Structure formats: C-alpha cells, structure tokens
C-alpha cells in the first residue's frame, strides 16, 4: 500500500525493539469481549485509476456543469471562482497543517486568518470577527446562544423569513436548553413584520436575515433600534454576503451580532459543504464569543507575529464552562474567502455585487413582461420569489429534462406559498440564459 | 553525523494584505456586462467595504509567501497526540474537486443528484461495518459537532423514555470538547478519575452512576494512549441504570479492524474523518464528524437521511423522533468524498494494517525514549504515548522548551500539557504513515534535546531559533487584544 512505508524488515526490527512477537501481539491489552469476531467486510481495494473511474461515474450522475442551468440560490450560490483561488488554497502548507497551536511554525495560517478576520469585519461592518464556524446555520444558533449569555434572558425571536433550514438548526441547538424560540411573521412585501414582535423586554435577541430567504432586504436598522431599546440584541443573519458590496452591511445598521454563511466568497457549493460560518460582533462582547480568534503580538525580537488568543473562552481551557464546544472549525474555507475577497478588492466587490443585482433585476423584468407575478415588493439582491399559475410543477419538471432547474419550490417550507418559487440569478447567468428561462416558464 | 531535517533557508517577508496594493487594481476577471446597470434604492446602499485593491500577482505572491511560514504534514513529521496527523492522499483531492460533485447545488431535485446520494449511502454502510454499529449520520461538521449530536441523541432518548436526566460522567482524561458538548445539552459533567493504571475502573463508575445520570462519555483508547480494558464492564453498569455509553472516536486510528464498538457496549460513537480517514486538517478545519449509533437509537439521528426507495436515492425527512438538523445542508460533502475514496483505496486488510502500524510506531517511540523522558504510565500503549518533563525539570527545562526546540530540529512538536492528568505532558502520536527512518530521526532529535537540556539548557529556553518567528508573547496578545488590522 503506497501510504504505508513499512517493509517487512522494518516491522521485524521494530517488533524486536518493542519486545512483541507479532503485529497482533501489540493489541494484547484489548479484552476478548471488545474484539471483532470476524474481519471487516469491505469492498476489494481500488487502484488509483479504478477509483478515478468510480468517482467519474458517480459525479456523472449529478446535474452540474455547463449542461445544466440551475437557478437556485437559497443559501448556496454559484459564483465564478478564479483559478488563482483554487491554486493558492490547495497549497499543501495550508491544507495539511493543523490548528496553529504552535505559532512560530504556523505564521502562514495565523496571518491569513488574522487578515480574514479583518476583511470579514470590514465586509460586515463589525468590530471583531472570529476565525470561522461550521456554516451559516450553526453560526446563527451560536449567535442566539451568545445573546442569551450576554443578556441572561431566555427567549429569542426569529423571523420566519430567516432561511427555513437555519431555523431548523436553531431549533435543534436550543431544544435541550431552556431558551424559547418565538417566530416573527413576514408581511406582504416579503420582509419581517417587526410590529409583530411581542414583549421585546423579555427577549435576548431579535434575529432577522438580510437579504432574507426570499432575497428581500430587511430593515435591519429598525430591528436593532427596537431590540436595543428593550435591552435585547439585534442578531443579523445572512446567507449571501456578496450583497454587502452594494447594500448596507449589518454593522452600519446597528447589529450587535452578525452571523451567516460565507460560501459565496469563493467556496464551491460542493453539494452543501463544507461552507463557512462567519461570526462577528461588537468588541464589548468578544469574551462571550464562540470559536477561535487570532490576535497580533510580538516575538522575542519585537517583530510582528500572530497567535491564537483569548482562548480562556474555549473548550480546551474552560471545558464545561466554555462559550462553545467548537474546536475544529472551517479554517481552510476562511482562507479561501480571504483569498477571494483579496482578489476582488473593494473595486471588484462593488462591481460584482452590482452585476448580481442587475442580473436578477433583468430576470425580474423579463418575467413580469411574460405575465409572471412577483409577489414581494421589497428590494432584493440576486434572488427573489415568483408566483406561478397552478400546474407549474409540470412545467418545472419538463424544464429539468431540458437542463433548466427553474428555481426552488417554496411550498415544502411555507405551505402558504404553494406555486411560489425562489429564483436566483448571479453573474454566472448570461442574458441569453435569463431570456431562455423567462421564455420557457411562460410557455 | 546525523543530519536532522531542521535547517534555515531563504524565507521571504510579506506585509499584511492592506499594506500592499494600489487603489484601482483588481485580481479578478470581472464578467462582461450584458444587462443594463440599474440603480439600487439609494437609501439601502452604501459604498462597499474598504478592501485593498490587489492584482492577481499581488495575491499569488502574498499567499505563496505566507504558505512557506507553515509547517505541514506534507513537509514533515507532525506527531501531535490525539490529532492523527497522517498523510493526506492526493488522489482524494482529485475526487473531491470533481466538477460534478464540487459544483453541485445541495437543493437539487433527487433525480439530479443520485451520484452524491449514492456515495453518502455507501459511506454510511462502510462506516457502520468498520465500527460495528448499526446506523450512521454524516451531517456533523467536525468531532465536537458529532459529540453535540451524540449528546442530543442521549437527551432525546431519555426524554422519549419520559425520564430526562441531568448529569453525564466524563473521565478526567477526556478532551475538553466532551464536557463542553454535554453542557450545550444542559448536562452537568461529573468528573471521575482514572486509576493508577491510567484507565477507568468499574468501581469508580458504579460509585457515581445513578438514575439522574444520562450516561458516560469515554474515549477509547483514552488520551493516555491506553485501551480502556474495563469498558465492557463499565458499559454494563451504565446500561443497568438506564444510561447510555458515548465513545469519542478521536482515537479510532488505533483499533481499526480490531475492535467492535457494538460488542464493547457503545451506543453512540463519533468519528473524525480528518483524523482516522485521512481528510486534511486545513489549518484547523473543515473536518467531518459522522456519528454511528446502535439500532435502538437510529430513530433519533439527524434528518434528512438518505434512503433507497424504488431503486432511487432520496433525502427523507420522515423520522418523527429525529433530533433535527445540525447544519443547513447534508454535511461536509467534500470531506465525505475524500474519506470514501480513502476507504475504497485501502480495503479491509490495509485499514487493519493502518492500526497495526500506528500502534507499532507509537510503541517503538515509547520503548526508545523510555528513561530519557519520564513515562508516567509504563504500560503497553496503543497509537500514542505520553511522556512528561519531570526528568528535565532538574535543569530548569520544561515541556514547552522541549517542544520549541524540536522545531529547530525540523519536527512539529507533540501535543503538550494534555492530558491534564500528566503534569507537563508530551503526547506523541506518530501515525502509521511515518517510516522507520523518520521515527529514528525524531527519536535521535528527542535524545539530542535531552542531552542539551542537561548540558546547554539555554538553547532550549531560546528555541526556536530557526523558525519564521521566535517565541511570541501570548500574554500581551490576550491582555490587549488586537483582532483586526
């Protein structure tokens, strides 16, 4: 086996040193009642070339690549990823290193994560961002737990326009705690009905997502105003951070905690993972934050360097009193996002965000012209909801046969939104693609 | 004269990202505009973030230089105890990056993602067979996320029995994630000490196990590298009082093909695909932490679950007792592809050989360094061995100094100051992918450092001297945190 370097002579010599007769003899401390009664039954090992063919076959049964036009966003977005991003983040020195607990020989990862934290904080308009969480949904759940710790209150209000799968994760995390989740409805324009938030003085947090699940831009300033006036925190979630190249970011609108998904920033969709949990807050709350943080310091010779810091919050020091149990995070995805953001730069990010906005607006106008109703009036970024006539599911299926996935049906998540579809158009869709979609769904 | 790998060469300096660049540069090929520009509502928009503007060359030089400041498995031996820093096969990267998988949207209709669903279903079966447990979820994003999943399953099980419980038994040798994961479910951790042999005794468990205790979290082999030989008797005690047994599978690399977790009495086990199954650590993640359970706990696993219905794979939500969801989507699929590729490449015999060689390597290091470094538990170890600095303390040299000096010799230090039960612990896990020559070089380095500790202790106090940076002031970093630039 090419990953196992031991020759038979090596093994014999090492066993002699160890004073054991055979490899099986190394396991004498395992009692009989813990052992397998029979060897594992696994497929016959594949050569590298057989494995390539096997994975090619599986991957060939996926709707990806130029043969398919997938107009679905909903928390996982198609964006162009420069070849340079993949090359840099594939470097062995980044990929095959561990958590940078030994800073002198981990300065590459540490500086890169410090830069990621900085770019993430600037993108979100927040004072401090951590080194990453698993994904947007678990980041939101941790954000709500953090708000409960800070305010010592045990109720949170979460908008129904937050990604439904994020809300499922929140429910899972909070179920065994004594924290109660209240749902805030959304109104006819597709944004959260803030007036429906009852008894904010009891709440630890009011959580909305912007752009929300329907692509609509929420009034986060109103949310933070109302929450903070009652002593609650404003938790601003997101699943499409590219929007902050064009729209106001959570920090500038008064959010206390901003948390969400960073997959959009140069990370492949990869059937849903790994993504990038982004997590940021006001500096005054940093000691309540979950996850790792990289900080700047100096070495013995006074030169700038970076270390993991404020680790007394973390499980390996604080154990059961830690702010979270998270250990391994999504560091390489954070690095990827940083390389992507650095490649775009401020100028590029702005233009790319504008282009996403324009593509979706163009698609909206073509659909409207084709007689399709767009029920929500709020401004959107690169995705939006369209209401199709009864029987559209047959059209949706027919289009799949043509390689077009015409959005995500919303009825599963929102029974009242039967025949409503969430459609996404990023910079990867050409005008021809958008025209074809509008033509096909109307026919 | 032995030539150690540690050396110095030309290493390039590199400023912070925003100390480079000029306004107006862009490292991205902006897609051409084929639709007209439409102004977004002015009240909602802003100027966009203050990012540096860099060319593609700026970006490539920046990150290439940073990368050279990292130690990595591909560069050398990385014997971090409890972390299983084995070689990460390159073919697995090819498979995970396959456009059909890497480019797939997670919410595709089932007919359009049969390949990924088939892979997930197959991987679940392989992990069940390898562990000897019955059902698997691939959704958790890392080991601690798997622990949380396991604790949620405990919680749901006891609630379903109509008897929620409030405590959990956690040995003093456990990873910190164990009690932290239990806390998230509202469980109070009850710590129990290991015995003089470094393992748990059934009596210690029996003394605290009661009908308010949800169960026990054990790591087996434990963090001293010792097999918990009483685990079956302990499981019987816990089960007799209505509790469940959680096994932290972080150390699974020691027992592949040897141990049957079901027979051992384990109800829930998490695996770290980034340890045992060769997916890379990525400088701290992403990992993947699948959870395997005994049949009676299957109804509680996270949804959706992959099911084969009429010869077609679907994601099913139809599990009313499920604990819910741990991530928005289905798991860290790219790492699932890597681990699946690894298992298919190895097969049953070579996976067993992995554990045999991992244990042989650790045992070889233990034998050869015994006496040079203090071995607090001189018993047959599994895949890792734990020394301490007590012999070097006489020369005012401690574990941190030894670890830092090892860098100068060209090795990543072992895990240090863990497990907490060994003061000044030096926890060495070589893994199976290190050859005898590399182990010998590591051993010679450790011996040379022990000699230096006696004869020239200041070399250790000053170490590292060959790394990109000298020792860094961690106290100052925490006292006045500077977390953004």
Spell out the key features of this protein.
heterodimer; A: 443 residues; Aspartate Aminotransferase, domain 1; Aspartate Aminotransferase, domain 2; three-stranded antiparallel β-sheet; B: alpha/beta; 2 domains; seven-stranded mixed β-sheet; 13 helices; 34% helix; globular
Secondary-structure topology with pairs:
The complex is a heterodimer of chains A (443) and B (485).
Chain A: H1 8-18, H2 48-59, E1 69-70, H3 83-89, H4 92-95, H5 107-124, E2 128-129, H6 136-151, E3 155-159, H7 164-174, E4 180-184, E5 205-209, H8 220-229, E6 233-238, E7 257-261, E8 277-281, E9 294-298, E10 304-308, H9 315-318, H10 331-369, E11 383-387, H11 392-401, E12 404-405, E13 408-409, E14 420-424, H12 431-442
Parallel strand pairs in A: 1-12, 3-4, 3-5, 5-6, 6-7
Antiparallel strand pairs in A: 2-8, 7-8, 9-10, 11-14, 13-14
Chain B: H1 56-67, H2 90-96, H3 99-102, H4 114-131, E1 135-137, H5 143-160, E2 167-171, H6 177-184, E3 188-192, H7 202-208, E4 213-219, H8 231-240, E5 244-248, E6 268-270, E7 291-293, E8 305-309, E9 312-316, H9 333-369, E10 385-388, H10 399-409, E11 415-416, E12 425-428, H11 436-455, H12 457-462, H13 474-479
Parallel strand pairs in B: 2-3, 2-4, 4-5, 5-6
Antiparallel strand pairs in B: 1-7, 6-7, 8-9, 10-12, 11-12
Main β-sheet, spatial strand arrangement of chain B = 1-7-6-5-4-2-3
Shape of chain B: globular
Look up the CATH topology of the largest domain in chain B.
Answer: Aspartate Aminotransferase, domain 2
Number of strands of chain A: 14
The biggest sheet of chain B amounts to: 7 strands, mixed
Model description:
The complex is a heterodimer of chains A (443) and B (485). Chain A is 35% helix and 13% strand. Chain A has 443 residues and is of the alpha/beta class. Chain A has 2 domains: 69-80 and 345-442, Alpha-Beta Complex (Aspartate Aminotransferase, domain 1); 83-340, 3-Layer(aba) Sandwich (Aspartate Aminotransferase, domain 2). In chain A, the strands form 4 sheets. A 7-stranded mixed β-sheet of chain A has the order 2-8-7-6-5-3-4, sandwiched between helices. Chain A has a 3-stranded antiparallel β-sheet with strand order 11-14-13, with helices on one face. In chain A, strands 1-12 form a two-stranded parallel sheet. In chain A, helix 3 (83-89) packs antiparallel against helix 10 (331-369), helix 6 (136-151) crosses helix 7 (164-174) and helix 10 (331-369) crosses helix 12 (431-442). In chain B, strands 1-7-6-5-4-2-3 form a 7-stranded mixed β-sheet, sandwiched between helices. In chain B, 34% of the residues lie in helices and 11% in strands. The two termini of chain B are 46 Å apart. Chain B has 485 residues and is an alpha/beta fold. In chain B, strand 11 (415-416) and strand 12 (425-428) form a beta hairpin. Chain B has 13 helices and 12 strands. In chain B, helix 9 packs across helix 11. At the A-B interface, helix 1, helix 2, helix 3, helix 4 and helix 5 of A face helix 1, helix 2, helix 3, helix 4 and helix 5 of B.
């Amino acid at each position: 086996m090419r990953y196992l370097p031991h020759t038979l002579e090596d093994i014999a010599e090492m066993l002699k040193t160890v004073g054991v007769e055979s490899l099986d003899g190394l396991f004498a401390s395992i009692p009989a009642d813990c052992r397998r009664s029979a060897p594992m039954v696994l497929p016959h090992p594949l050569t590298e070339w057989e494995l390539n063919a096997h994975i090619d076959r599986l991957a060939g049964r996926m709707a990806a690549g130029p043969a398919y036009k997938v107009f679905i966003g909903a928390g996982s977005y198609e964006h162009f990823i420069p070849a340079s991003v993949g090359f840099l983040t594939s470097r062995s020195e980044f990929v095959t290193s561990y958590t940078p607990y030994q800073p002198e020989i981990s300065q590459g990862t540490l500086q890169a994560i410090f830069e990621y934290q900085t770019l993430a904080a600037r993108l979100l308009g927040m004072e401090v961002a951590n080194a990453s969480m698993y994904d947007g949904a678990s980041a939101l759940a941790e954000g709500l737990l953090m708000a409960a710790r800070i305010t010592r209150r045990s109720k949170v209000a979460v908008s129904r326009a937050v990604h439904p799968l994020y809300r499922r994760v929140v429910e899972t995390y909070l179920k065994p705690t004594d924290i109660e989740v209240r749902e805030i409805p959304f109104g006819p324009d597709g944004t959260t009905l803030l007036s429906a938030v009852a008894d904010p003085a009891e709440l630890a947090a009011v959580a909305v997502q912007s752009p929300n699940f329907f692509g609509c831009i929420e009034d986060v300033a109103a949310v933070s105003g109302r929450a903070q006036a009652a002593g609650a925190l404003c938790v601003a979630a997101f699943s499409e951070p590219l929007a902050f190249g064009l729209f106001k970011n959570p920090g500038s609108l008064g959010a206390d905690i901003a948390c969400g998904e960073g997959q959009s920033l140069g990370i492949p969709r990869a059937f849903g993972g790994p993504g990038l949990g982004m997590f940021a807050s006001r500096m005054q709350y940093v000691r309540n934050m979950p996850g790792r943080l990289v900080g700047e310091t100096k070495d013995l010779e006074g030169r700038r360097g970076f270390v993991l810091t404020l680790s007394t919050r973390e499980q390996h020091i604080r154990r059961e009193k830690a702010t979270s149990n998270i250990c391994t995070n999504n560091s390489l995805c954070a690095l990827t996002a940083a390389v992507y953001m650095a490649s775009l730069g401020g100028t590029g990010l702005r233009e790319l965000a504008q282009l996403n906005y324009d593509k979706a607006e163009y698609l909206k106008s073509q659909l409207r012209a084709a007689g399709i109703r767009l029920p929500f009036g709020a401004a959107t970024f690169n995705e939006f909801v369209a209401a199709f006539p009864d029987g559209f599911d047959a059209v949706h299926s027919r289009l799949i046969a043509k390689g077009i996935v015409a959005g995500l049906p919303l009825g599963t998540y929102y029974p009242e939104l039967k025949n409503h579809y969430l459609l996404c158009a990023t910079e990867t869709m050409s005008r021809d693609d958008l025209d074809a979609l509008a033509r096909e769904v109307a026919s | 004269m032995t030539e150690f790998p540690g050396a110095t060469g030309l290493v390039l300096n590199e400023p912070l990202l925003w100390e480079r660049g000029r306004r107006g540069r862009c490292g991205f090929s902006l897609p051409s505009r084929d639709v007209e520009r439409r102004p977004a509502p002015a009240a909602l928009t802003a100027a966009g973030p203050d990012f540096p503007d860099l060319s593609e060359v700026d970006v490539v030089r920046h990150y290439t230089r940073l990368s050279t400041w990292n130690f990595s498995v591909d560069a050398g031996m990385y014997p971090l105890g409890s972390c299983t820093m084995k070689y990460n096969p390159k073919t697995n990267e090819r498979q995970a990056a396959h456009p059909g998988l890497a480019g797939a949207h997670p919410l595709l209709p089932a007919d359009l993602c049969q390949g990924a669903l088939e892979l997930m279903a197959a991987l679940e079966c392989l992990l069940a067979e390898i562990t000897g447990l019955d059902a698997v979820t691939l959704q958790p994003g890392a080991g601690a996320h798997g622990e949380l999943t396991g604790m949620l399953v405990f919680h749901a099980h006891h609630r379903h029995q109509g008897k929620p419980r409030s405590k959990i038994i956690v040995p003093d040798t456990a990873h910190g994630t164990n009690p932290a994961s239990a806390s998230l479910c509202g469980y109070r951790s009850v710590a129990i000490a290991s015995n003089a042999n470094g393992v748990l005794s059934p009596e210690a468990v029996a003394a605290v196990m009661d009908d308010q205790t949800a169960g026990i979290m054990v790591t087996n082999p434990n963090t001293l590298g010792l097999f918990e030989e009483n685990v079956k008797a302990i499981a019987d005690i816990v089960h007799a009082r209505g509790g469940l047994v959680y096994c932290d599978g972080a150390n699974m690399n020691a027992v592949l093909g040897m141990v049957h977790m079901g027979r051992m009495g384990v109800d829930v086990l998490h695996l770290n695909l980034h340890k045992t199954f060769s997916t890379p650590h990525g400088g701290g993640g992403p990992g993947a932490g699948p959870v395997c359970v005994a049949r009676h706990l299957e109804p509680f696993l996270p949804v959706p679950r992959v099911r084969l219905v009429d010869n077609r794979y679907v994601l099913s939500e139809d599990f009313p007792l499920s604990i819910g969801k741990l991530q928005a989507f289905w798991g860290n699929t790219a790492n699932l592809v890597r681990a699946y590729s690894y298992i298919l490449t190895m097969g049953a015999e070579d996976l067993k050989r992995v554990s045999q060689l991992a244990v042989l390597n650790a045992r070889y290091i233990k034998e050869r360094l015994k006496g040079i470094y203090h071995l607090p538990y001189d018993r047959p170890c599994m895949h890792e061995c734990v020394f301490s600095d007590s012999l070097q303390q006489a020369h005012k040299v401690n574990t941190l100094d030894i670890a830092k000096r090892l860098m100068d010799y060209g090795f990543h230090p072992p895990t240090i100051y863990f497990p907490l039960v060994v003061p000044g612990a030096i926890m060495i896990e070589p893994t199976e992918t290190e050859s005898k020559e590399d182990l010998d070089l590591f051993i010679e380095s450790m011996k040379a450092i022990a000699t230096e500790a006696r004869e020239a202790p200041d070399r250790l106090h000053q170490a590292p001297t060959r790394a990109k940076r000298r020792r860094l002031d961690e106290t100052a970093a925490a006292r006045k945190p500077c977390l953004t630039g």
